[in-house]
Amino acid sequence: MLEKKVSELLRIGTRQEYLERIVTAGLSIHGDRKVLGAINNFLIDLQELGLTVTLRAAWKLQELHDVLVKTPLDSKLEENQVRSLRNIMKDIWPTLEAESRGMIAYNVSERRFPIERLVDDVGGLFGKDVFKKLPTIAQQDFAEAAKCLAFERATAGAFHMLRGPESILRHYYCQKLHRGRADLMWGPIVASMRSYPRRFPAPLLNHLDHIRASFRNPTAHPEKTYDIDEAQDLLSICIDVANRMIQDLEPQQGK
């Protein structure tokens, strides 16, 4: 996925316009926001936006850039250099226009969760310091689930969401009972936890059983699909149970 702000797409158009139509003789070549900098930034934009065909077509612009770099620092743009620059940019434009038509930008619709969190910082949806204490696989699953929600892949997101609490559950179970690892499935783990009523809060166990019976098991079957609202509800539930397990470990980990 190539993530680009709309402003970056607009910027390359304004630079094209500046170099082809606005630049005049007498402008400084060197220095901040001068001609050489504008050419350099235009070439960088082509590369960063993935406009590889236009970048190859801009070889004359690169050559002009290399010539201007060697001029004295107090140099001004000459009339013949202006004509050369304008002709070069005029030649580049059809390629830039044609290649940009093949670039499709998708507008991500707003969710109940901030899009920025879903795409780049799912940990910000959890309780304070909870996400960094999750097993690595759970962090990865929640990150994938959040991206699925952002891009409206609700059923795929649900699979990842429900993998997250299961790996946290194994971690939680082992930490509380001081075991190296647990190969048990979700149901047997909760059943085992119920035999230690003083170590495992009953409301948490009931919550885990509810998620397993109502969501985790049905989601494993191909008949079950999710719409975006159901998936967002499920993410809230999974984050809640993750918070509860990690926060219940705090006294244990502090000893």
Please describe the topology of this protein:
Elements lengths: L5 H17 L12 H14 L3 H6 L1 H11 L9 H23 L13 H6 L15 H15 L3 H24 L8 H8 L8 H18 L8 H26 L2
Helix content: 55-70%
Beta-strand content bin: under 5%
Mean pLDDT reading = 89
C-alpha geometry:
elongated
Unreliably modeled segments:
none
The main sheet comes to: none
What's the total helix number? 11
Whole-number radius of gyration?
28 Å
> What number of domains?
2
CATH architecture of the largest domain: Up-down Bundle
CATH class of the largest domain: Mainly Alpha
Distance between the termini: 44 Å
Task: Say what the CATH topology of the largest domain is.
Answer: Four Helix Bundle (Hemerythrin (Met), subunit A)
Order of helices and strands: HHHHHHHHHHH
Summed up:
The chain is an all-alpha fold and 255 residues long. It has helices spanning 6-22, 35-48, 52-57, 59-69, 79-101, 115-120, 136-150, 154-177, 186-193, 202-219, 228-253.
Description:
The protein has 255 residues and is an all-alpha fold. It folds into two domains: 6-101, Four Helix Bundle (Hemerythrin (Met), subunit A) (Up-down Bundle), CATH 1.20.120; 115-253, Four Helix Bundle (Hemerythrin (Met), subunit A) (Up-down Bundle). Helix content is 66%, strand content 0%. It contains eleven helices and no strands. Helix 1 runs antiparallel to helix 2 (35-48), helix 8 (154-177) runs antiparallel to helix 10 (202-219) and helix 8 (154-177) packs parallel to helix 11 (228-253). It is elongated, with a radius of gyration of 28 Å.
